[in-house]
Protein: Asparaginase
Amino acid sequence: MNDVTPIALSDDRILRVHAGHAAAPIVVEVTRGSMVESVHRVIAAVTDASGAPVVSWGDIDRLVYGRSAIKPIQALPVLESGAADAFDLGEDEVTLCCASHSGEAMHVDRVNAWLGRLGLSAEDLECGPQIPGHEPSAHAMLRAGETPTRAHNNCSGKHSGMLTTAVHLGEPTKGYIRDEHPVQKRLRATMQEMSGCDLSGVPTGYDGCGIPVYGVPLKGMATAMAQFADPSRLSPARAAAARRIVAACAKHPLLIAGTGRFNSAILSETGETCLLKSGAEGVFAGAVPGKGYGICLKADDGNGRAASTAMGAILRHLGVIDDAMAQRLTDKLVQPVHNWEGRLVGHIRPAPDLAF
Amino acid sequence: MNDVTPIALSDDRILRVHAGHAAAPIVVEVTRGSMVESVHRVIAAVTDASGAPVVSWGDIDRLVYGRSAIKPIQALPVLESGAADAFDLGEDEVTLCCASHSGEAMHVDRVNAWLGRLGLSAEDLECGPQIPGHEPSAHAMLRAGETPTRAHNNCSGKHSGMLTTAVHLGEPTKGYIRDEHPVQKRLRATMQEMSGCDLSGVPTGYDGCGIPVYGVPLKGMATAMAQFADPSRLSPARAAAARRIVAACAKHPLLIAGTGRFNSAILSETGETCLLKSGAEGVFAGAVPGKGYGICLKADDGNGRAASTAMGAILRHLGVIDDAMAQRLTDKLVQPVHNWEGRLVGHIRPAPDLAF
Structure:
């Protein structure tokens, strides 16, 4: 258990990344009846593995915290260190390393069994407890008089991956979320290498699950994701790890998010033609192996409905989601808004500013 | 029970109220560590009862659905029709007419008792069921194996008010949420009179609780709210109703929202110097009786954290929240962001663009 230290800073030390730039384009609209009621502004970058932009919206040099959208990048050390093989991680567990899961039994049971193989338990996770995002699972837990554990935290798979690496490399398991722990230093180095960005001196903070976050230019994050799509610039060990991650997530789309979730629904359709990961505060990242592209986007206001709708439109544009898939994904690409009686009252949809 | 009819429209009939206008100012910042991670753009209008602007941010002519922020306006017919007195509504019930409550026992028990006095029950509400927003109440309900009723819907007080008026005036109770029902026609006429805006031909839709919504210019909504602050332009019956609503909400701040909620916390401090009401999709309205001002704001992206933070800053600017109150309301005016382990990782706070 970490001590609870406030780390909010005084005003003059906080970087205002939006200040002085043109407003990001309106990329998502929320309609109600005969009017657009709300809009979301989103910046988005699609690049190749060299970092060359393919298409973009808004200021793609803006620093963004990758949050959970960069979990596939954070999963690389688990594989390339040999930890995954040493502990015989299956593709399901590799997927959980990349997951922001809904705390369903399929997620939590796997995490607990995996931690058991490490000689650890959910008590060794330092991510805090979280009630399952999957409503039926949350309700069942409450009805049974149970309380959520740290294994229920949506990041428990990522944290189990970090613990796996630490155990394998003989590093302390306690304090693995701290800036100075080798696990976190390795994650930062990996992001720097994958993105090609110098991360010394960038703004930093702490994620919902307690690990450090750091500001990376949006286009750098897209470039990092593009290495999954085109691993030709990576070391053999890292390239193999990247390919295993793409294959694993394609095989276990429900494990990366959960029942009914956008991320899982898209991956269920696209298979290995796409790697896709959502993050908090409206970040979404992806890779398109068939084309060698990486994608990263961020909703200015941090809203997930904006991020998923924008990502759906970009994947549609890139041809990752074809017409037949789009037909089956209708409710994900243009999300219906219902009222409490179940009546359809509006839609969340791509806006005309998201023109290609 | 109404039929479930989709009412979403084809694209060419949907008005894009944000198109072609300058971007709204950045009014709220969400910090994490040493960086602003997300921002919210908000339009806001403060006017007097004549409609003259006092201070504003962004395009205050933009059409906005008032959503639940205009419940105090929708409560007027309950009082001025004589329905409230005929059924002996207390100040608690008048407050519930204006409430978006959290479904706590203090809210739900009062609604059920009130409906019983009308010879009705929660089954006569047409707002749909909703699990309580108050987490301990929701969890207790689930632990007890119960399911939410329509009385738990956050709008159940407003709907009970509508039913009270219908019963008192001998109108049908069934279908009271429909456009053509006298209850809804009365609400629309009341909004037109209070705002001074011609509402013929404005965009329309349906609210989360099933009643019609219509687009009103933001400054018109502020003007409507200003009538509560300065009822001198109203008929004696409406002026009396407006005064009773201000007094009732000041006396029962916990009933208008709920335990721990921004709206309730502010009203608990300000008493009759302020009427304040939140709405879905980032709308917030208020009135300042001591100054004769009305306030209405809307977060472009529909986020409630933006709306409450902006409203807090405006009330601070107007002197409604004084230094001593601000001290006690610290966590409401600048909301802390905690991670799952309870560590403070950032803040939601007014941005420099919200300069006065």
